[in-house]
Amino acid sequence: MPEPLTDAWIEALAEAADGRTVSTGLALVLEYRVVDGPTWHLAVADGRVSVVAGSAEAPDVSFHAERATALAMADGSLDPLRAVIDGDLVLHGDPRTLVAARELLDDLGDLFAGC
Fold first, then answer.
1. How do the domains of the chain map onto residue ranges?
2. Each residue's pLDDT tens digit in the chain (115 positions)?
3. What is the separation of C-alpha 79 from the centre of its chain, rounded to a whole number of angstroms?
4. How far, CA to CA in Å, does 9 sit from each of 17, 101, 114?
5. What does the alpha-carbon distance between residue 16 and residue 2 come to, in Å, rounded to a whole number?
6. Are 43 and 62 in contact (CB under 8 A)?
7. What per-residue confidence (pLDDT) applies to 69?
8. Which residues pair with 62 in a beta bridge?
9. How many angstroms separate the CA atoms of 38 and 96, rounded?
10. Burial letters 51-85, b for 16+ CB under 10 A, else e
11. What is the pLDDT of residue 106?
12. 14, 20, 26, 94: which has the fewest C-beta neighbours closer than 10 Å?
């Protein structure tokens, strides 16, 4: 398993997503930006899932965090909701998008759990 927040880790996420399809008609782009670290985005469109290194052109929601916060969320020692409440994870965009996509996000979380 590659070290989180590295190029190899983002590549592992991309490989896990490669060829995956979802049955939802939902289109969604989530961007993840780590201060002094990588930026990548997850896109769901036309039933296909992809993970791409770099910024998204027009993300529905983006998440910004310091490296320590991102690492703690990656290893499971910090709940993302707690990070938002404490101001350590900043959301840009409409958070209702995440509520509407909850089932999809749960499935994707399972998909990426091995990474």
1. 7-109
2. 799 999 999 999 999 999 888 877 889 999 999 999 999 999 999 889 999 999 999 999 999 999 999 999 988 999 999 999 999 999 999 999 999 898 888 888 877 877 7
3. 14
4. 12, 24, 11
5. 13
6. no
7. 98
8. 31, 92
9. 25
10. bbeeebeebbbbbbbbeebbbbbeeeebeeeebee
11. 85
12. 94
- The number of beta carbons lying within 10 Å of the beta carbon of residue 18 is 11
| CA 22 – CA 106 distance, rounded (Å) | 12
Task: Decide yes or no: CATH 3.30.930.10 for domain 7-109.
Answer: no
Q: How far apart are the C-alpha atoms of 34 and 103, rounded to whole Å?
A: 25
Q: State the helix-helix crossing angle for 102-112 and 7-17, rounded to 10 degrees.
A: 120
Structure tokens at 72: 């703690």
Q: Which two tokens stand for residue 75?
A: 């290893």
Amino acid at 64: H
What pairs with residue 18 in β-bridges?
A: none
Neighbours of 104 (CB within 10 A): 17
List CB contacts of 109: < 8 A, sequence separation 6 or more. Answer: none
H or E element: which one contains 64? strand 61-65
